[in-house]
Amino acid sequence: MDRRKFVKGAGIAGAAGLLAACGKQAGTTECVEGASAAREETFEWKMVTTWPRDFPGLGTGANYLANIIGEMSGGRLTVKVYGSNELVPALEVFDAVQRGVAEMGHGGAYYWKGVIPASPFFSTIPFGLTGAEMNGWFYHGGGMELYHEAYAPHGITPYPIGNSGTQMGGWFNKEINSVDDLAGLKMRIPGFGGEVLKKVGGTPVNIPGGELFTALQNGTIDATEWVGPMNDLAFGLFRAAKHYYYPGWHEPGTALEALVNQEAFGALPADLQAIVKVACQAANADMYADFEARNGEALKSLVEEHGVDLRPFPDEVLAELKRASTEVIEELAASDAMAAKVWASLSAYIDRVKGSTAIGSQYFVDRR
Ligand code: CA
To answer: What does each of the 368 residues of the chain score in pLDDT, given as a tens digit?
Structure first.
């Protein structure tokens, strides 16, 4: 991709000319003016998302990220957000960023498992890490380096830009009293969760969020998971299914991601590159806090105002799902070298933190 494609406006020709002069007359006024003009270069990026525009938590998280990049850069890098289907369909976001149709994407890593088999490890794994533990792995446990390595062959650099916290098990129109009730079940459940459902006899379907309500209501699917109380309430899924199950065994702390086109990123000056990276980190913290703060309120509304039948999966069902989850993860690790490398890191990290979580934050959660 041509670097100039990412550069807006007339400022660039003058800046380039002055910088050329700077090379000949280092330290002169022209050199200083040239550097200053370079700082005035402006860039206009597009961000395509897998979410409907302004969708609570996820779409608003994309808006937040775009806004802070614009603010932190003083308008030198602006990012225009497109909801799903506005520029490209939800599940074509990865492809759009890879081809440079958009410089950034906003979605979930597990949507891309067909392209990068290891990608689901960077969103969440069944019965795995909480959001807080996941952030530890990304920033200080070797996760970020592996994340970048896995996407590098596709010309994309990914960053964690949010976490949904622990999700819900989903919406069902029939009761799940034993593992047999999962057999033949057609359920929207992406990533590892879908593979696990297949292992226990169900049929996973991956359809974008915007189509869930209709699919559940007209019986195209028997059940769906989406996110957690805040998002599920916003979609009105309680109007399309009878039972709301917990826990979200398949998504204990789902990380969301930004995709950044490597060439577009490389065309930025160093300070704008730093702004993109730090903005992603700030967006990550902000979205996680948003979900944590609002899920409780939404759950109360679902149960008390909408009369939702909230119920846990039976222990026997969870035990079987956990057994199948281990099989799915180990099969994936055995089939793909990058997946094996990521799983080795992640499983070692889980071993390292589970003891301190159990006697740390978990101790208080269990006693409130
Ligand atoms: Ca989900």
So the answer is: 444 444 444 344 434 444 444 444 444 445 555 556 556 799 999 999 999 899 889 999 999 999 999 999 999 999 999 999 999 999 999 999 999 999 999 999 989 989 999 999 999 999 999 999 999 999 999 999 999 999 999 999 999 999 999 999 999 999 999 999 999 999 999 889 999 999 999 999 988 777 899 999 999 999 999 999 999 998 899 999 999 999 999 999 999 999 999 999 999 999 999 999 999 999 999 999 999 999 999 999 999 999 999 999 999 999 999 999 999 999 999 999 999 999 999 999 999 998 888 888 888 888 88
Q: What spacing in Å lies between the alpha carbon of 189 and ligand 1's midpoint? A: 7
C-alpha of residue 237 to centroid of ligand 1, in Å:
13
Q: Could you please report the per-residue DSSP string of 260-311?
A: EEHHHHHTS-HHHHHHHHHHHHHHHHHHHHHHHHHHHHHHHIIIIIT--EEE
Ligand 1 centre distance from Cα of residue 261 (Å): 25
195 CA from centroid of ligand 1 (Å): 14
* CB of 158 closer than 8 Å to CB of 259: yes
3-state secondary structure of 8: strand
Any idea where the domains of the chain sit in the sequence? Answer: 4-166+254-292
Phi, psi of 79 (to 5 degrees): -125, 120
Q: Alpha helices of the chain — where are they, by DSSP H?
A: 11-24, 29-39, 59-72, 93-99, 131-140, 143-151, 191-199, 212-217, 229-235, 262-266, 270-300, 315-335, 337-359, 361-365
Say if residues 60 and 66 touch (Cβ distance below 8 Å).
no
The pTM assigned to this predicted structure is: 0.85
Ion ligand 1 — residues with CB < 5 Å: 167, 225, 251
Give the domain 4-166+254-292 fold.
Answer: D-Maltodextrin-Binding Protein; domain 2 (3.40.190)
CA of 135 to the centre of ligand 1 (A): 18
- The tokens for 214 are 């209709």
